[in-house]
Design a protein that fits this description.
The protein is mostly helical. It has one domain: Arc Repressor Mutant, subunit A, CATH 1.10.10.10. Helix content is 64%, strand content 6%. Strands 1-2 form a two-stranded antiparallel sheet. Helix 2 packs across helix 6 and helix 4 crosses helix 5. The radius of gyration is 18 Å and the shape is globular.
Length: 154
C-alpha cells in the first residue's frame, strides 16, 4: 500500500491486518519447523508460564479467559507433554502449572523464527521506527510502566 492508500484506512484496521499477516506467517513457519500442533494461544500460554509458572487461575487472568477455559488449555497441553502440574510452593490444594522441556524447545524455535521473520521484514519497513512509534502508542493508551498482557481477543 502506498502512503496515499493508507490515508483513508483506519489505524485499528492497519494494526490488526499487520498483526494478522505477521502472525499467520509466523504460525506457518513454526508449523513447518515441527510444531503444527501449536497455535498462537499456546504460545501466549507459554509466555505466561515462563519462569516459575502460574496457577490455572493466574493463567486465566493473564489470558483474559475463564477459569474453565484455562483449565482446558492446561489439560490439552499437559496431555501433549508441554506442561505439567506441580504442588504449589505455598501449599494447599493449588497446583502450579510449569513448562516442560518440550515447551522450552518450542520457545527456542519460535524465538529464532520470529527474529528471522523480523530480519526479513526489515528490508521492506523501517522496523526500529515502527517499534518506537508502536511503543509510543501503547504508552499513550496504557500509561507508563510495564506492558499490559496480550490477550487472545481475535
Amino acid at each position: 500500500m502506498t502512503r496515499e492508500e493508507n490515508e483513508g484506512v483506519e489505524l485499528t484496521f492497519l494494526l490488526g491486518l499487520g498483526f494478522q499477516l505477521m502472525l499467520g506467517e509466523f504460525t506457518r513457519r513454526v508449523g513447518e519447523a515441527g510444531y503444527a500442533d501449536l497455535r498462537p494461544l499456546h504460545g501466549m500460554t507459554f509466555q505466561v508460564l515462563k519462569g516459575p509458572g502460574a496457577t490455572a487461575t493466574e493463567l486465566a487472568e493473564r489470558l483474559g479467559v475463564t477459569k474453565q477455559a484455562a483449565g482446558q488449555i492446561v489439560d490439552d497441553l499437559e496431555k501433549r507433554g508441554y506442561v505439567r502440574r506441580e504442588p504449589h510452593p505455598g501449599g494447599g490444594r493449588r497446583k502450579l502449572v510449569v513448562l516442560t522441556g518440550a515447551a522450552h524447545a518450542h520457545l527456542a524455535v519460535a524465538g529464532r523464527i520470529l527474529h528471522e521473520l523480523e530480519a526479513e521484514l526489515a528490508g521492506s519497513a523501517d522496523l526500529p521506527v515502527l517499534r518506537r512509534e508502536l511503543g509510543h502508542l501503547v504508552r499513550a493508551l496504557h500509561g507508563e510502566g510495564g506492558l499490559p498482557p496480550l490477550r487472545p481477543v481475535w
